[in-house]
Design goal:
The chain has one domain (9-251). The two termini are 24 Å apart. By secondary structure, it is mainly α. The protein contains 12 helices and no strands. The longest helix is centred in the N-terminal third of the chain and has 25 residues, at 37-61. The chain has helices spanning 9-29, 37-61, 69-88, 93-100, 104-119, 124-134, 141-149, 164-175, 178-190, 192-195, 218-226, 242-251.
Length: 252
């Protein structure tokens, strides 16, 4: 059943089946044919983003959560490809830093990937490898807290989120007493979309055809799953992927 409230299933199917996936397959095959190393860096990075967007579009279209495993594996495989590509190319220091830095879009994509992996009960080995591929240990308090719960117990925890105006409330939820978390998660979700205004996909439903892939607060679901937060007050919120959490708990 369609989960997204802004577009119909035909929209998502068109972009998943005929645009995004075909484009990924084509760009992946021709990656090493690109003559410039900067072009390879851009291509490898954009492939990961496209794969995350496909997973989110499939979720919005209403695909069964269990059937999304192949899309999540594709994201992980493309992170592996990105790692090997960056190891094999020569880039100026500032250019490499530009492509490897933890910006807001990349952090959101990482949190989305982890939310799906947790809900689908990926193996400890797959999760640890994904955390290694994500990297950026000690840079963002939210990512660090989540990584430690997922088994990276030696990971340093940053003093705060790299994007405190957006993710400081989630860090606060994690660090709060259990009885306060549900209320704070509800408050966070209520202001989430407005808070996400700096990210590249904000208001994309008003932009070019195919730019929109969904407005989902996967990071809230990830915190709810890993810290067992009562989310009963927010299951009907249009930006909350409630059944991702329900799927995780059913498998538990």
């Amino acid at each position: 059943m369609l989960r997204d409230k802004l577009f119909d299933s035909a929209y998502f199917s068109r972009w998943i089946d005929f645009e995004q996936q075909e484009a990924i397959d084509s760009r992946k095959t021709s990656l090493n044919d690109l003559p410039k190393h900067v072009g390879r860096a851009l291509r490898a990075t954009s492939l990961v983003t496209s794969a995350v967007q496909i997973a989110v579009m499939r979720y919005g279209r209403g695909d069964a959560i269990a059937e999304l495993r192949d899309s999540i594996l594709q994201v992980k495989d493309l992170l592996e490809l990105k790692r090997s590509t960056f190891a094999s190319i020569q880039l100026k220091k500032d250019v490499r830093q530009m492509y490897e830095r933890l910006d807001l879009g990349r952090l959101y994509e990482n949190l989305t990937l982890l939310a799906f992996m947790v809900s689908l009960r990926f193996s400890v080995q797959d999760t640890h490898r994904t955390l290694d591929l994500i990297g950026h240990a000690g840079e963002d308090a939210l990512l660090d807290h989540l990584a430690r719960v997922l088994g990276d117990e030696s990971r340093p925890v940053a003093a705060q989120s790299k994007f405190p105006k957006i993710y400081a409330p989630l860090v606060e939820i994690i660090e709060s007493p259990v009885e306060q978390r549900a209320v704070k998660l509800k408050k966070y979700l209520e202001g989430w979309y407005k808070r996400m205004k700096p990210i590249y996909w904000h208001d994309s439903h008003e932009g070019a055809e195919g730019a929109y892939f969904g407005y989902w607060c996967f990071e809230a679901a990830l915190v709810a799953m890993l810290f067992d937060v009562d989310d009963s007050a927010i299951v009907a919120h249009p930006h909350y992927p409630a059944d991702l959490v329900q799927h995780y708990r059913r498998l538990g």
